[in-house]
Amino acid sequence: MPENDTIPSAVQAAVARHSHDAANLVQILHDIQNQLGHIPEQAVDQVARVLGIPPVKVAGVRGFYHFFHDRPHGRYDILFSDNIIEHFQGKRELLNYLCTQLWVEPERVSEDGMVRVGSTSCIGMSDQGPAALVNGLPVTRLTLERVTAMVDLVKAGKPPAEWPAEFFQVADNLHRADALLGEPLERGAGVRAVLEKGADGMLAEIDKSGLRGRGGAGFKTATKWDFCRKAVDTGAECQEVGGKICDNTAATVRYVVCNADEGEPGTFKDRVLLNSYADLVFEGMTVAARVIGAKQGFLYLRGEYRYLLDKLNGVLDQRRKDGLLGEHILGTDFSFDIAIHLGAGAYICGEESALIESLEGKRGTPRNRPPFPVTHGYLGKPTVVNNVETYASAAKVAAKGGEWFAGIGTAQSTGTKVLSISGDCDKPGVYEYPFGVTVRQVLADCGAKAPHAVQVGGPSGTIIGESEFDRKIAFEDLATGGSMMVFGQGRDVFEAARNFAHFFAHESCGFCTPCRVGSRLIAKGMDKIASGHGTCADVEELKRLGHLTRTMSHCGLGQTAANPVMQTLEKFWDHYDNRLRSKEFEPSFDLDKALETARKITGRDDAWAHISAD
Ligand code: SF4
Predict the structure, then answer these.
(1) What one-character DSSP code corresponds to residue 360?
(2) Measured on CA atoms in the order 358, 364, 367, 372, is the torsion positive or negative?
(3) Collapsing DSSP states into helix, strand and coil, what is residue 517?
(4) Are 254 and 383 in contact (CB under 8 A)?
(5) What local confidence, expressed as pLDDT, does residue 238 receive?
(6) Residues 580, 525: contact at Cβ < 8 Å?
């Protein structure tokens, strides 16, 4: 527990470091937690006082993000990645082993306050899992030996900074590079091109390239940028931000935002792009800024990739030194800079309007749309939000031309797609292909072992069976943000769907009832079937809930939360059928099981301590 007088100084330092700006609240809370280990009530009150906002707002933000804590959570905070691929690799057994060795219950801080062991949603390491975050830093390739070594280190009180460096090694695992990643781009080539061609000329090139957003939805990039550059700030939709009202009379200010919050389980290609191709990403953001007329950009980095923060800031510094960022870029009248905003463990912040809310220092609740961010984005101003891969592709288009790019891929899906491949294959990792490649080809290249099913695009995407392996990766066929999870023969597809159902229930932001309640009921229904108590009535109920969440939810998360269950019910019915105990009704509440705790407490297990079916 921090001394009471350390709290005010920690808060003062954090608030000062972030310009006393309530729009930086998430970053301020990160700073405070880094100093104090958690964010106590006293800090909440003080932050509120200094920023001039209600304490309930600060507490609300603290409570929204999984990585913020209102109480101490141990000197060692160990969170295993909960992706199904890592389950198949033995995550649960390793977690249980670690808990047993450290005498700690999962998800609880040990009695001596030293350690907490728990789970968190996919941390983007499933090509080198099982993996865990230790005090926010990824430890990869967990084995029994490595976990045993971790036990010794924790018992010896060694801080993670003194643990063996190889524990924290994260490999790129780039196995196939093509037009985007295969040929290096000279630093500054994209920026020079946009300065030469001008905003109109570059927009025409982007349009000619046919570039579409790489997040999965595939909106045309040139159209998005054009909407944004033409948007005028009327002030009509300006919102209250941190106690300040946007200035309606100011000339239109525009922003460029890079969505680096890839949280879809099984995806990790942005990790590689940011680690080894950050210049390309920042180059693309700078090109976008010149086209739309923005002076400020943000890279929203998922909290799980915090270990990349210093490296990325180093790349930004170098670009400033090279005159590629900052005032008067390459001696022209064009000025633009980029700041990095760190997320705090909320999958929903990958949704662009939730991401903007988070950038503004708020809970990541998706906004009503329209209006869209291109007209009313960050601080109510026109904002372009694209993902990491889209900006990297835009930089290549800027330097090499729209025609070159349009000649790659298919007519409707130009260019290449970077895929994150994990699961039952010899070479999990990152693969880049021209759009139009078949799933069968990808499976052959990664050495898939007797593939039975492939989850394309993560849990919110599409699961396909062997009969569909000739389908193509393309917007017109299998659209994907990049995640591909391979399930070999013998893998339990039902368990994968159950894991995904829990993922959505956990990540629902809670704003709207169909998703908040529906996703939990779906997960409970799957648990009931898994426990051997499922009936056909439960399956019908799952379908009803699936329809409800799909049609009534506020945002894409809720609208796709039932996809894994609905699709596996349709395509892999045998995985459900052999689990159903009865085709008749069975109550969902097991009275006898509910008495288990009472039996443990009283030490009884005789016949009279049970409620029998008779
Ligand atoms: Fe939040 Fe889910 Fe509603 Fe989206 S659908 S706003 S994630 S509760």
Answers:
(1) T
(2) positive
(3) helix
(4) yes
(5) 46
(6) no
Ligand 1 atom having least distance to the Cα of 348: 7
Please state, in angstroms and rounded to a whole number, the distance separating the CA atoms of residues 166 and 40. Answer: 34
- Are 472 and 440 a contacting pair, CB within 8 Å? no
Pair type for strands 337-342 and 296-301: parallel
Amino acid sitting at position 280: L
Per DSSP, what are the bridge partners of residue 255? Answer: 296, 383
Cα separation, 300 vs 349, in Å, equals 9
CA 354, CA 351: separation in Å to the nearest integer? 5
- Cβ of residue 346 lying under 6 Å from some atom of ligand 1: no
Three-class secondary structure of residue 403 per DSSP: helix
Distance 416 CA to ligand 1 centre (A): 31
Phi, psi of 287 (to 5 degrees): -60, -45
What pLDDT does residue 245 have? Answer: 42
Residue 550: CB within 6 Å of ligand 1? Answer: no
What distance in angstroms lies between residue 522's CA and the mean position of ligand 1's atoms? 15
Q: Which of 267, 562, 233, 209 is nearest to 387 (CA)?
A: 267
79 contacts 40 by C-beta, under 8 angstroms: no
Tens digit of each residue's pLDDT (9 = 90 or more) over 537-589: 999 999 999 999 999 999 999 999 999 999 999 999 999 998 987 666 556 66
Is the pLDDT reported for residue 6 higher than 90? no
d(CA 430, CA 276): 12
Q: Tokens at residue 380, please?
A: 């109510």
Residue given tokens 């980029």 in the structure block: 338
Above pLDDT 90, what percent of the chain?
A: 87
How wide is the angle at C-alpha 159 spanned by C-alphas 154 and 160, nearest 5°? Answer: 90
Q: Is the omega angle on the peptide bond into residue 370 within 30 degrees of 0, that is, cis?
A: yes
Query: Is this prediction's pTM over 0.90?
Result: yes
Residue 501's contacts (CB-CB under 8 Å, 6 or more residues apart) are 519, 522, 523, 526, 561, 564, 565
Q: Which atom of ligand 1 is nearest to the CA of 511?
A: 8
3 vs 491: CA distance, rounded Å: 51
For the segment 252-280, what is each residue's pLDDT rounded down to a tens digit?
A: 899 999 999 999 999 999 999 999 999 99
> Within its chain, how far is the Cα of 336 from the centroid?
27
Query: What is the residue with the minimal CA distance to atom 5 of ligand 1?
Result: 558
Atom of ligand 1 nearest to the CA of 519: 2
Edge to edge, what strands does the sheet with 416-423 contain?
Answer: 174-176, 429-434, 416-423, 483-488, 451-456, 462-465
The verdict on the CB of residue 548 being under 6 Å from ligand 1 is no
Tokens of 285: 């953001």
DSSP character for 329?
Answer: G
Average pLDDT over residues 233-261: 65
